[in-house]
Amino acid sequence: MNFSSKLLEDAVNEFGKLPGIGQKTALRLVLHLLGKEQAEVAQFGNTLIKLKNEIKNCRVCHNISDYDICNICSAPKREKEVICVVEDARDVMAIENTNQYFGVYHVLGGLISPMDGIGPSDLTIEDLVERVKTSEVKEIILALSANMEGDTTLFYLHKKLKDFNIPITTIARGIAFGGELEYADEVTLGRSIATRVPYENTLIK
Amino acid sequence: MNFSSKLLEDAVNEFGKLPGIGQKTALRLVLHLLGKEQAEVAQFGNTLIKLKNEIKNCRVCHNISDYDICNICSAPKREKEVICVVEDARDVMAIENTNQYFGVYHVLGGLISPMDGIGPSDLTIEDLVERVKTSEVKEIILALSANMEGDTTLFYLHKKLKDFNIPITTIARGIAFGGELEYADEVTLGRSIATRVPYENTLIK
């Protein structure tokens, strides 16, 4: 692209580094910001700098937090004996949005992926084992993505945790609510038949 | 969305204000930035702040520029007698990318749009008239979008400029190169037949 301004080019290049943002979109975003008041743009920039400078990871669950211990871990109402293991902070938010879970979390910070050079030691797995060892845990829910990395991590976690004799569960897989059978992929449909459940179990009590 | 962190929420809200960026995309972008080094995020924020603080509009053509007079207006090789009138800086870049234009520009800063409350006085039209009056201009090319606002602006500009007895042209409309006739809209196809040109004229000399 032919920029008439170095300042503009720099800003477009910064936006263009973000995932899913190409040069044309970056230019549109920068021109939008240029149309804003100076104070608004300063707030945009400073909010990001402040975020990176001040954000912490919860010492217990490694979730993104403003404090040393996150809101969820420090909430007296949450069941500390149930730990839901997730990949990242986005998954915590997704589960929190369901309003169906009242335990606490453990954020792995990724999934085991030899292809990307991510091994167990790059994740917070040792911390999880330590946490299970030192606190009273009644159930560990493994809520990981259903892909190769997720399955590998699931397998590794199960191996590491099975000797504690604590129930280890995974989230239910199957046809989505509102999903039409004919559009479901064969693997999901096949597995959802093989792992069928008694009708009474599907009623929310 | 349920944020575990106020800092995170603020950053997501700032990104969410940008056009075409919803909350989920904003969260993805913020989490991406969180994964970067502190220096990189600081650079991102500071580049935007610097852009807004230091950027100028060219005194002659109103294009975005680092200096009082933009690169194009100050280039000795550009034909100052040919002025291409465009809506905004993005159009200047698009035309520059073609490498087919060697004149200078005039950036209106928008199009006349009574629906959005944008009248002629909100644009740089008076400056354009002044520029045509005080400098030697041989041709004015009106390169505006082919929509209602573009047509309104075209009509207004023509009325303002016709008394100077300078050739006023508009960019050619028609079927795009590589475009299939059957997929062209009726208006474009109809107009491209009505305004057909001698074959010899279409050969680039």
From TrEMBL, chains A, B:
Superkingdom of this protein's organism: Bacteria
One Pfam family of this chain: RecR_ZnF
Key words, A-Z: DNA damage, DNA recombination, DNA repair, Metal-binding, Zinc, Zinc-finger
Gene Ontology annotations of biological process type: DNA recombination; DNA repair
Annotated CDD domains: TOPRIM_recR
Zinc finger regions, C4-type: 58-73
The keyword Methyltransferase belongs to this UniProt entry's keyword annotation: no
Gene Ontology molecular function, alphabetical: DNA binding; zinc ion binding
SUPFAM superfamilies named in the record: Recombination protein RecR (SSF111304)
Domain Toprim: from-to ranges: 81-176
Family statement drawn from the similarity comment of this UniProt entry: Belongs to the RecR family.
Protein name per Swiss-Prot or TrEMBL: Recombination protein RecR
Native species: Pedobacter chitinilyticus
